[in-house]
Specification:
- This protein has 366 residues and is of the alpha+beta class.
- It has 3 domains: 111 residues, Release factor (Methane Monooxygenase Hydroxylase, Chain G, domain 1, Up-down Bundle); 163 residues, Alpha-Beta Plaits (2-Layer Sandwich); 64 residues, 2-Layer Sandwich (Double Stranded RNA Binding Domain).
- The protein contains 9 helices and 11 strands.
- Strand 4 and strand 5 form a beta hairpin.
- Helix 1 packs parallel to helix 4, helix 2 crosses helix 3 and helix 3 runs antiparallel to helix 4.
- The longest helix is centred in the N-terminal third of the chain and has 39 residues.
- The radius of gyration is 24 Å and the shape is flat.
- The chain starts with a helix and ends with a helix.
Length: 366
Amino acid sequence: MSDFRDELEALELRLAAARRYLRQDDLLAELGKLESEMAAPGFWDDQGRATAVGRHYNAIKEDLDVLAAMETDLGEAGVLAEFVEAGDPASGEELSAILLRTSRRLEELELRSLLAGEFAEGDAIAEIHSGVGGTDAQDWAEMMLRMYERFTQSHGFDFELDEITAGQEAGILSATFIVKGRYAFGLLEAERGVHRLVRISPFDAQHRRQTSFASFDVTPLIEISTEVVIDEKELRIDTFRSSGAGGQHVNVTDSAVRITHLPTGVVVSCQNERSQLQNKARAMQILVSKLEQLRREEVREQLNALSGPQVDVGWANQIRSYVLAPYQLVKDHRSGFEDRNVQAVIDGRIGPFIQAYLEWRRSNQT
C-alpha cells in the first residue's frame, strides 16, 4: 500500500507543478476574456480573426479540462487508497488504472512545457531530401517518410502528403508533407537535420555495408500572413505529370503544380490533390509559409531558430545515426540519447528522442 501512497503523492506534486508552468490562473482569466470576445456582436465578420480566436480558445480550454480531469482523478484515487488500506483489494485495480492514466497525461503536459517559440503549437510543413549515398540514400529517405507518417499518426495528428519525387531505382528523392495538430511544429522541430543510416545495402550484390544520408526540415504552416504580398508577375507556374511508379504515395495525373517565386528562388509543388486548382491552392499556401519564414530572416544564409542551419546532407553533419550493422543502435548526437531497438524507432517510436532533445536544448539555453 505504501507504493500506492508514494506514487499518489508524487503525482500530486507533478500536478501542482503543471498548474504553475501552464499558468492555470492566467488561463482561466484569458478564457473569460475570449468568451466575452466570441459572444460580442460582429465577432464572425472577420473570419480570419474569428478562426484564430476560436483555435486559441479551444487550446486553453483543452489544457484547463486536462488539469480539471487530473484533479478529479487524484481526488478519487485518494478515496480508493483508503478503501485498499481498509482491505478492499478490488479497489486496487481501479486505483492503479487512475494512477497510470494520470501519469501519462502529466507526461504529455511535461513534454509540452519543453516546447518554445511563436509557432510551437501550430501545424507544420515538413520536407525530406535524400543526400549522399545514391540509391541507398533514396531508399532511406522513403523509410524516413514512413517513420514520420507513423509517428504523427500515433500522436493523433493529420498527415497530408503533398509532393513526392521518386528515386531513379528505388525510394524517393524528396517529399513534402503537412502535419496538422496541436504542437505538430514544436515536436517536429526537434527532428530538423541530417539523419544517417548504416546497414548492409540491399542494393549491393556484394552485400557491403553502406552509409547513407537524408535530411529532414520543417517550417511552421501559416494559414494567413498579413505581411507577405505575392505579385502574380513574380511567379512561374508549371504543371506536370507526377513522376515515378505511382502507388500509394503518388497521384499520377497531369494536375501537379510547381510554383517558382522568381525573386527568392523558392520552389514549391503539390501533386496529391484531386485537381489542378486544389494543387495550386495548396502550393500557394506552402509558398506563403516559406516566404513568411524568409521574411523573418534578415538574410537567407543566416537562418534563425525557425529554419535552422543549412548543412550538407552528408558526413559529419548528422544529428542522429541509425546503425543496423555491425550492431544495432540509434543514437542522437545532440542529446546522447540511445535506443537499441532500431526497428521500433524506424517504425515511428521517436518520441523519446524528441523529449531527450528538448530537455537537452533547455538545459543548454543561455
